[in-house]
Design a protein that fits this description.
The chain is an alpha/beta fold. The protein contains 16 helices and 12 strands. Helix 8 links the parallel strand 6 and strand 7.
Length: 398
């Protein structure tokens, strides 16, 4: 199944997410039993849809959606079509946005309904033919919308906050404050869904004391980042965090520089996962957005992968950033299809997070430095709330 998507118009302030739109339309093809067929979807403006409406329906005005079946319309036998092509759906983004505002919906929700409506017309449903046909189409629309709501039940991408940088400030002076344990409590009260800490072999920031206290005080979820070091493994098995994330660890690096080479270290990683699994501790692997690494993560028994977003965040140039973003999109989709749960993190900030948060396949983002840096100016509670607002807005963006 495939969706041939063309976007000719955008709605100011409501960016359209190409991958989300295609994923929705492909999902609909599967739900309607025509997954082997292709549909063409055009998102345009009022002027273009008015022209088409006048040419084909003798109505010189904009409308929300038009459908043009490849076959003979409502009476066509889909199976008898010479090509596996359903037809064209054309939607005016401008009209869709006005309707979304009128109906108090997000643009995402309104576009979803219009795509469903247009798809059913391609499949022979016609609400203008008779009262019975109108009810039949209405019932089918509601059925698909209900199924879609269930399909999207995961909800908003959650935010886990890494408080290592609070410990870094403390260690710079060798004193007792600021306390990362206190910082974690503020993050939770502000709405964070989890706390992330990296206990390094050299103890450059987080200390053993911090980890043990956090295990006793964190009320949401404690994610312990760690290398496959014997002493750290022993601590993890002792405190039993809600999740461990295995990361590569180099003594000279300022921060984690890339994903694990799971392919090269499969045996070592598999042994750690075996120990954690026996203690009922799920394991996430910090990986680059590479299909081979993801497959290796699945093979060694990981429950989660955390996609390394560093290249996406650091690359220079819009075209290069879009390339890195598409790699993340494809990796998140591939990992999800492999049965892995997907998180992402590294380098995310208040400017670049929204597109990643909008990906339905990503459950959680791990963000630290940007939030702690902003907290210097706004306070930690406000910094957390501002990031959560970005995630909420991304959840309403298609």
């Amino acid at each position: 199944m495939a969706t041939d998507l063309t976007i000719q118009a955008q709605a100011a302030g409501f960016p359209l997410h190409r991958q989300k739109i295609k994923r929705l339309t492909n999902w609909l093809l599967g739900q309607c039993g025509v997954q082997d067929y292709t549909v063409s979807l055009l998102l345009t403006d009022d002027a273009e849809i008015s022209r088409l409406n006048a040419q084909y329906r003798n109505k010189n005005q904009p409308t929300n959606v038009l459908s043009f079946p490849f076959g003979e319309g409502a009476d066509a036998n889909i199976a008898a079509l010479p090509l596996k092509e359903l037809g064209d759906i054309i939607i005016s983004v401008e009209t869709a946005l006005r309707e979304a505002i009128d109906y108090k919906l997000s643009l995402h929700e309104r576009l979803s309904w219009l795509i469903i409506h247009g798809m059913l017309h391609l499949l022979g449903y016609d609400h203008e033919r008779s009262a019975n046909d109108e009810k039949k189409m209405f019932d089918k629309e509601n059925e698909l919308l209900h199924t879609l709501h269930t399909y999207r039940r995961r909800g908003m991408t959650t935010l886990a906050i890494n408080v290592d940088h609070v410990a870094t400030i403390r260690q710079a002076r060798g004193i007792t404050e600021p306390d990362p344990v206190f910082a974690a409590a503020i993050c939770e009260l502000a709405g964070a869904s989890g706390i992330v800490v990296h206990l390094r072999e050299d103890r450059r920031h987080m200390q053993d004391r911090d980890i043990y206290l956090l295990r006793q005080t964190v009320k949401t979820k404690l994610n312990l980042e760690m290398g496959a070091n014997k002493d750290i493994i022993k601590i993890a098995l002792d405190i039993k965090p809600d999740l461990i994330t295995l990361v590569p660890e180099k003594r000279q690096e300022l921060t984690t520089e890339g994903g694990l080479d799971v392919l090269a270290e499969k045996k070592k990683i598999a042994k750690v996962i075996e120990k954690m699994t026996a203690a009922s501790i799920p394991v996430s692997l910090f990986t680059d957005p590479d299909a081979k690494q993801l497959a290796a993560a699945r093979d060694v028994g990981a429950t989660f992968v955390e996609l390394h977003t560093g290249k996406y965040c650091d690359v220079i140039g819009e075209q290069n950033r879009e390339h890195e973003f598409q790699l993340l999109v494809e990796a998140a989709e591939a990992a999800s299809q492999m049965g892995l749960r997907v998180c992402a993190g590294h380098g995310l900030n208040y400017q670049n997070t929204a597109p990643i948060a909008a990906l339905e396949t990503i459950e959680e983002l791990s963000i630290g430095h940007a939030i702690i840096a902003r907290a210097v100016f706004t306070g930690l509670e406000q910094a957390v709330k501002e990031m959560l607002a970005i995630l909420r807005q991304a959840d309403c963006t298609i």
